[in-house]
Amino acid sequence: MYRSKRVALVIPARNEARALPGVFRTVPFEVDRILIVDNGSSDDTARVAEEHGAEVVSEPIAGYGRACLAGLAALAAEPPDIVAFGDADGSDDLSRLFELLDPLVDEEVELALAMRIPIEAGALNFQQRFGNWLTTRLIRLFWNHDYRDLGPMRAITWEGLEKLEMSDQSFGWTVEMQVRALQMGLRAKEFPVSYLRRKAGRSKVSGTLAGSFRAGVKILWVIGREVLREKRLFPKVIRTGQTI
Predict the structure, then answer these.
(1) Least enclosed by CB within 10 Å: which of 24, 108, 114, 174?
(2) Secondary structure in 3-state letters for 110-168
(3) Is the residue at 1 inside a domain?
(4) Would residue 241 count as lying in a domain?
């Protein structure tokens, strides 16, 4: 238990058996529970996770958001105070997760986001950089908040997470969380964290042009859906240059 706060780490994984041992070596002591959500792997992802002491949750239908939701469902019976998320490919520097947890424990913010700073060539490709730029500009246009990144490494209070009513089952998970945090008035802040190349294999999303295109379309669709959702749920909100 980290300063009287229970911390759980949810890591969606699909065919990441080769990368997982390195990922486990970087998980900081502040984390009480590690949940690996096996998202339809055909390799030894589940076995490797169990050998390293993680709880394995099975979600056989592929989808990043679907895997995250499965992890949260497994936590619901005994929810932690804080939930963190990270990737299973070794690109997130989980050893610095404490930099996101400290502001949550100190109650300075309710959502802490890792802003990826590439320190290795190829850590972020052109598709990822352009997608980040476009999406964050749209968020600034509609919600007047300057996010810089949509990276997977993040931490949020359980109480704050419940307010968001997360639902996206695929590529739109991260942007849905960041937009809904603004809609619900959560205090969100980004913290620069080193970002590495994935340690094995190829990304299921950004590793191909087709995957990047599908992810981009889904993210834009989520932005449009959230604009309409906000008009329906908060019809009398008047923007004054502050986040709501």
Answers:
(1) 108
(2) CEEEEEEEECCCCCCCHHHHHHHHHHHHHHHHHHCCCCCCCCCCEEEEHHHHHHHCCCC
(3) no
(4) no
The alpha carbon of 90 is separated from its chain's Cα centroid by a whole number of angstroms, namely 14
Structure tokens at 201: 């294999």
Average pLDDT over residues 143-163: 97
- Number of domains within the chain: 1
Q: Is residue 157 part of a domain?
A: yes
Question: Which domain does 64 fall in, by range?
Answer: 7-233
3-class DSSP state for residue 19? Answer: coil
Strands 188-195 and 33-38: unpaired
In angstroms and rounded to an integer, the radius of gyration of the C-alpha atoms of the chain is 17
Q: Which residue has the tokens 């169990």?
A: 50
CB-CB contact of 218 with 171 (8 Å)? yes
Q: pLDDT of 3-60, one tens digit each? A: 999 999 999 999 999 999 999 999 999 999 999 999 999 999 999 999 999 999 999 9
Percent of the chain at pLDDT exceeding 90: 77
Q: How far is CA 111 from the centre of its chain?
A: 11
Instruction: Return the CATH number at 20.
Output: 3.90.550.10
Query: How confident is the model at residue 1, as a pLDDT?
Result: 85
- Decide if pLDDT at 238 tops 60: no
- Between helix 126-143 and helix 209-233 the angle, nearest 10°, is 10
CA–CA separation, 134 vs 153, rounded Å? 20
